[in-house]
């Protein structure tokens, strides 16, 4: 009997020979993880058995690389994977951990319906707390803060985090709030911005998180950036990054010159409405940007040359300047979600 498929999608995997990071199509089965060079490949490049394996998340072995997790097999072989954003990493980690636990207990993997239970005082779900903190209406407000002739965009202060935890009744007092905030910081749900908060993380302060109005922090997928002595041109350029992130993930994109398809990480922002795409294997700067104001986005069933396409789940973005972009999602559901999100952003963004 074939093992059941639990989850699939693009992740960036570190090679075991040359140690390079490349996007791969990953398939999680009940007993192991298969990885493919392309989604359309019929046979995998390799397989990682889960029996007896351990999972480490977050894995902070690679400095600036975020959302990394590690699987160590019984033969002490380490396999490193990088997700596009925090929620994606946590979803993979949950399912892999459950698959390993099911193997150990001789059980079949089965998803259970989840319902909110009463949280015990000593039990805190950091993932759920993080999502509450990011809530647009009731969460922590992201601001543009200035210090030492620098402008920190999309961030907030340490004391604001503790204020929110106390007022939201997530903690009983500020001291308990420091413990929770430090845990959020250690798990990668919060990131330090500025010299003061970074020095605390590096160990020069008594607590890694500071309940301080001069200590700045940001959410890892917020679009945070720091400006220093910017010219007018720089300010105009950075304007496209000020929008709120409403969707992100990996898609296949067709190149304009060679017409070849490559995996890219996409970040969709609204107000102003931009779709930035990045090399998922690394690099903080985008490879390009699609201005969405006034664009048209539709699903397509044929290649740009008009022939019937063998590729599935294609969609096209036509900008106001009549530049055509062809993208491919992993499933019909994902294609529909991206099209709807882009349509909303194009109508509301600047």
From TrEMBL:
InterPro entries: DEP_dom (IPR000591), PH-like_dom_sf (IPR011993), PH_domain (IPR001849), Pleckstrin (IPR037370), PLEK_DEP (IPR037371), WH-like_DNA-bd_sf (IPR036388), WH_DNA-bd_sf (IPR036390). It comes from the Eukaryota. Residues 4-101, 244-347 form the PH domain. Pfam families: DEP, PH. This is Pleckstrin. Gene3D superfamilies: Pleckstrin-homology domain (PH domain)/Phosphotyrosine-binding domain (PTB), Winged helix-like DNA-binding domain superfamily/Winged helix DNA-binding domain. Keywords: Acetylation, Phosphoprotein, Repeat. Residues 136-221 form the DEP domain. Transmembrane segments: none annotated.
